[in-house]
Amino acid sequence: MLKEVRAVDITESLITYMDDNLPTYLHDWHQRIVISNHDVHKEKVIDNALHMVALVKQSLRHKLSPEEIMRLAHEVAVQRLEAKINIGEFVYNVNLGRSEIVRFVTGSGISIEQLQPVIEKINFLFDEFLYQAVKKYTQLKDMEIEEKTVFIDQSHKERLTILGQMSSSFVHEFRNPLTAVMGFVKLMQQENPNMKYIDIISHELTQLNFRISQFLHASRKGIQEREAEDFSLEDLFTDILDFMYPSLVDADVTVIPRIDPTITLRAHKDELKQVLLNLIMNSIDALRQMRQNRRIMIFTKIEGQDNVHITISNNGPAIPPEAISTIFEPFFTTKELGTGIGLFVCKKIIEKHNGSISCSSDDNITTFTIVLPLQGTAPTHEEKKSQIEI
């Protein structure tokens, strides 16, 4: 009974000492804390410190409930989030307050042996307060980040919608006269087969038409509902390489094809042709950075009995590792004047055919790999109706 009386006397004596020295404690703590002039809740900092001292006194009198600690911790966490401060500054300030209280307590004249349980209570209180405050702050911060992510995603979708509208308008305004020009160029070729530069003009117009088609695939109005067809993969590559011949010669690129002549696909030929054209054109652009020995390797094989693998590789500069994960995203491009549409369209076309496309790159070789199913390569009419084009 005597020990209990002495413990109560020590507690009340200590609390009286803390009350008498409270202004000094608050002054010393406030002089050392880190607080921004832009903190919208800086006027509440002293109030929170006073509230914390009150909780310490309640703890010493065994009258403190966990709910009271949590209430203050959550309130302060909201303030710190609204103040947009670094959570490290908050933890530093709280621990500084702990140190100041312990320093004042040990200066009360009470022996260290008698103060030991008091210091343990103070440490427990501050540890619990920090845990609850940081936990709540983290939850609120995660919610804020999630809201921003949703907003960014929504903005991204809106950009894609605008792109679809722009590309549709662009095609209506531009493709009709382009088709007329291409038609008259073909007539000129027939009537004047030896006319100088006419082949180059025809080739460049076809390239321009191909670029427009890329935007068509990024637009809802550009969806074409033509049926799939059976065709030889070797014949498709032959057409593509014949078409690309002027660009290959101009860039001094050697193509090394290893194409299995037995592979036949059922797919939308023009769409698959667009994918392969885009990959080869990208390879040519990359190889222009090489001084010599520019090579494109094309390899096809049947994997098992279900899939055909198509790889298009070049020995140009490596694609940075951080770009590999986003290379198929819309608007992402490593080219100075690129649109960031080409590879995005390639991915959409391949996925529409129930396939996949991936990229790997190092200092020696960059490879794009397409995997397509041999059976059921092209989507059915019902699947096409259910697909959402971006």
Describe the overall structure.
Helices cover 62% and strands 12% of the residues. It has twelve helices and seven strands. The chain has a five-stranded mixed sheet with strand order 2-4-5-7-6. Strand 4 (294-303) and strand 5 form a beta hairpin. Helix 4 crosses helix 6 (112-191) and helix 5 (87-106) runs antiparallel to helix 6. The longest helix has 80 residues, at 112-191. It starts with a helix and ends with a helix. 22% of the residues are buried.
Topology:
Elements: H1 2-20, H2 22-32, H3 45-60, H4 66-82, H5 87-106, H6 112-191, H7 198-217, E1 229-232, H8 233-251, E2 253-258, E3 264-267, H9 269-287, E4 294-303, E5 307-314, H10 321-324, H11 342-352, E6 356-361, E7 366-373, H12 381-386
Helix pairs in contact: 2-5, 3-4, 3-6, 4-6, 5-6, 6-7, 7-11, 8-9, 9-11
Briefly say what this structure is.
The protein is built from twelve helices and seven strands. With 390 residues, the protein is of the alpha+beta class.
Determine the fraction of residues in helical runs and give it as a percent range: 55-70%
Rg value: 36 Å
What fraction strand?
5-15%
Number of helices: 12
Q: Tell me the distance between the termini.
A: 80 Å
Which spans of ≥5 residues are poorly predicted at pLDDT below 50?
1-5, 220-224, 377-390
Could you say which overall geometry the principal axes of the C-alpha atoms support? Answer: elongated
